[in-house]
Amino acid sequence: MTDGDFFQRAYNIVRQVPKGRVATYGQVARMMGEPRKARYVGFAMHSSPGMKGGVPCHRIVFADGSLAPGFAFGGADEQQRMLEAEGVGFLPNGKVDLRQYLWEA
DNA sequence: CATATGACCTTCC
DNA sequence: AGGAAGGCCATAT
C-alpha cells in the first residue's frame, strides 16, 4: 500500500459522518492521527468520488464552521442549503453551529 | 523531471 | 489578545 492510503482513510472517516451532522477538516485529520495533514484532507475531498462514493464532502466544513466557497458542489450556497435539508442549523453569521451539529466521534 | 500550489489547522511571538 | 508563520502529502503544470 502506498501513502495514498491516507486519502482512503479520509474517505473512511468522512463516510462515518452521520446525517444532519458536520465534521471539520482538522477533526478528521486528527482522527487519522495526522493533525498536520488537515490540508490534504481537503485535497482528498477534492479528489473524492463524491457522495455517490459515500463521501459527503458537503458535511465537511472549516474549523470555524464556514463552508468551502467556490470549490463545493455549486457554491457554498448550495452546500449550505443541503446541510439545512439534512437538519443542520446555521448561525446568523452564515456559519454552521458546530456547538450543536459538530460530529462527535 | 522539478517546481509550485493547495477545501486547513496549530502553535509561537 | 491579535497577528504571523509553519507544516505536511499529493496533484497539476
From TrEMBL:
- Catalysed reaction(s)? a 6-O-methyl-2'-deoxyguanosine in DNA + L-cysteinyl-[protein] = S-methyl-L-cysteinyl-[protein] + a 2'-deoxyguanosine in DNA; a 4-O-methyl-thymidine in DNA + L-cysteinyl-[protein] = a thymidine in DNA + S-methyl-L-cysteinyl-[protein]
Q: Which GO terms describe its molecular function?
A: methylated-DNA-[protein]-cysteine S-methyltransferase activity
Domain Methylated-DNA-[protein]-cysteine S-methyltransferase DNA binding, by residue range, is: 5-88
Which PROSITE patterns does this chain map to?
MGMT
Q: Which domain of life is it from?
A: Bacteria
Q: Which Pfam families match?
A: DNA_binding_1
According to the record, the segments passing through the membrane are none
A GO biological process this protein is involved in?
Answer: DNA repair
Which keywords does this chain's UniProt record carry?
Answer: DNA damage, DNA repair, Methyltransferase, Transferase
| Gene3D superfamilies in the cross-refs | Winged helix-like DNA-binding domain superfamily/Winged helix DNA-binding domain
**NCBIfam families listed in its UniProt record:** ogt (TIGR00589)
Indicate what this protein is called per its UniProt record: Cysteine methyltransferase
Q: Which organism is the protein's source? A: Tractidigestivibacter scatoligenes (Olsenella scatoligenes)
